[in-house]
Amino acid sequence: MSQIKMPHLMLKKIIYLCLFFYCQNGVAVEVGDYLPLGKLQTIQGQTFDQGHWNNKNTLVHVWATWCGYCHKQNSHLNQLMKKIPVDSLNVITISVDKRVGPVKAYLKDQRYDFQVVMMDERLSKAIGKRRGVPELYILDRQGRVIQKDYGLMVDLDFFELARYAQPTQSNPK
Fold first, then answer.
1. Residue 66 phi/psi, 5° resolution?
2. Which residues are registered as beta bridge partners of 24?
3. Is the peptide bond before 7 cis (omega within 30 degrees of 0)?
4. What are the counts of helices (DSSP H) followed by strands (DSSP E) for the chain?
5. Among the listed residues 97, 89, 124, 122, the one whose alpha carbon sits nearest the alpha carbon of residue 43
6. How far apart are CA 34 and CA 36, in angstroms?
7. Which of 19, 77, 126, 166 is the most exposed place for a label (fewest CB within 10 A)?
C-alpha cells in the first residue's frame, strides 16, 4: 500500500513544481503590478528612456495590424490624443506584428501619428501572458499598472481614459 502512495505523491509534487515554474513565466501583469518600459526605440526613430515614462501617466496599447478590434481601438486612440492637452499623457503603442513594414504601411494608410514600438522579448516578458489584442494598460508615474483592459473597449469607456491626462506644469520664472 505504501509503495502505491509514494509514486502518487511524487507525481503530484512534480506536477505542482512544473505548474509553478510554467505559471511564473506565463503570469500576466495586472493592476497593482509594475510594468517597466525602460528604454524604447520607436519605428518612427524616437527614443524614450525610463525618465520619460516617470514624468506623467502612460497609456500602453498593444495591438496588431491584422486585428479588426485593434483598427477600431486605434481610431479611438487617435481621437483621444486630439482631445487631451498635448504632452498631458505619455502614449506608446506596441505592435505584435512580426515585421515592421506592414506596421509602417498601416500607420501611413490610416494617417496615425502615435508612437509604435515592436513587441520584443524584453517587452513580452515584462507584460507577461496576454489574452489577445487589443490590450491596454495605464501606468502611473512610478510604472504601476492602474488600469488594464483587453479586447475592444466601448468608445465612451475609451474616451474616459482622458481622466489620466495631466496638465503640463509650467515652470515658475
1. -90, 0
2. none
3. no
4. 6, 7
5. 97
6. 6
7. 19
Q: Which cell numbers in the block locate residue 84?
A: 487631451
pTM attached to this predicted model? 0.81
Rounded distance, CA 110 to CA 82, Å? 15
Query: Model confidence at 27, in pLDDT bands (50, 70, 90)?
Result: confident
Question: Which letter, b or e, does each residue of 84-101 get, where b requires 16 or more Cβ atoms within 10 Å of its Cβ?
Answer: beeebbbbbbbbbbeeee
Name every residue whose Cβ is closer than 8 Å to that of residue 55 and which is 6 or more positions away in sequence.
90, 141
**Cα 122 versus chain centre, distance:** 12
* Residue in the block written with cell 492602474: 146
Quick check: 153 and 76 in contact, CB under 8 A? Answer: yes
Residue 11 has which C-alpha cell? 507525481
Strand 47-48 and strand 40-41: the pairing is antiparallel
In sequence order, the 6+-apart residues with CB closer than 8 A to the CB of 73 are 61, 63, 134, 136, 152, 153, 158
Cα separation, 58 vs 164, in Å, equals: 8
pLDDT at 144 over 50: yes
Cell, residue 124:
513580452
- Tell the residue number behind the cell numbers 489620466, with chain if given: 164
In this predicted structure, the answer to whether residue 142 has a pLDDT above a threshold of 80 is yes
